[in-house]
Sequence to fold (59 residues):
Amino acid sequence: MRDTRVNMGDTERTPARMVLRFLARHPRSVGTLAAIGITGAYVGFHTMLIAAGVAVAAG
Fold:
């Protein structure tokens, strides 16, 4: 019987495994990306709070 599966034997290159492999090989890059992400979320959150405050003050 013939095997008709696509990408047979290519289970090592799934996107999740590629990301995990990158994170394991480049821990400093991961820390930098995490810091940038946290900073971006912090700035975005406070921008939203300021906008809400302005909207409330404007009535």
Notes: Residues 27-58 form the longest helix (32 residues). The mean pLDDT is 84.
